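Q: what sequence does this backbone want?
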């Protein structure tokens, strides 16, 4: 079992467990107010292994499964067998970096809760886009393919727009903060990837 699949399995195991154990769910979810008040810093990590429901879990794990192994194998190739370390840095950093907006904006909001691997998964997707800019990508259930770099720009613009204008409970800022982290980390680790665009 590859490292991305181990992460996927951990997400499924903990998410499903917490679907049936709400006390545990609320002990592990992302609550900036509780982090500040009780120094429960572990929530920065644990919330990313929980999901709101089976649909939320399925979408994130489908995307992780679809892109995770390609990114892991590419990291392992470009970084001389150190794929485990660098993919771990990508995934963990995506979790932490994507949580920054929610934390800074809701430290005094006792009602704010967030869960999901979307930030980390977005980091993986944008690492893929950096490494494979001309691979074909599309939104789920919309059978129109775009080069990965075009998809990346469009999706980033959409998430920023939705973050500013949507009234839903989806943390769109986590999506684009995670994506930006994955993009910048991968370029920092291997700047030669930029040459693929020319």
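A:
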């Amino acid at each position: 079992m590859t490292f991305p699949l181990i992460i996927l399995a951990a997400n499924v195991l903990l998410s499903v467990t917490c679907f049936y154990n709400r006390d545990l769910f609320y002990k592990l979810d992302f609550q900036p107010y509780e982090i500040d008040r009780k120094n429960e810093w572990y929530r920065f990590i644990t919330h990313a292994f929980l999901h709101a429901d089976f649909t939320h879990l399925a979408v994130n794990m489908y995307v992780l499964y679809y892109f995770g192994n390609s990114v892991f194998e590419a990291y392992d190739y470009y970084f001389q067998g150190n794929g485990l370390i660098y993919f771990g840095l990508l995934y963990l950093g995506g979790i932490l970096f994507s949580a920054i907006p929610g934390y800074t904006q809701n430290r005094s909001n006792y009602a704010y809760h967030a869960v999901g691997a979307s930030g980390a998964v977005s980091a993986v997707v944008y690492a893929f886009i950096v490494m494979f800019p001309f691979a074909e990508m599309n939104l789920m259930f919309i059978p129109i393919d775009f080069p990965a770099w075009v998809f990346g720009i469009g999706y980033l613009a959409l998430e920023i727009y939705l973050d500013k204008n949507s009234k839903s409970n989806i943390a769109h800022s986590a999506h684009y903060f995670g994506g930006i982290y994955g993009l910048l980390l991968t370029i920092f680790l291997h700047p030669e990837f930029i040459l693929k665009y020319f």
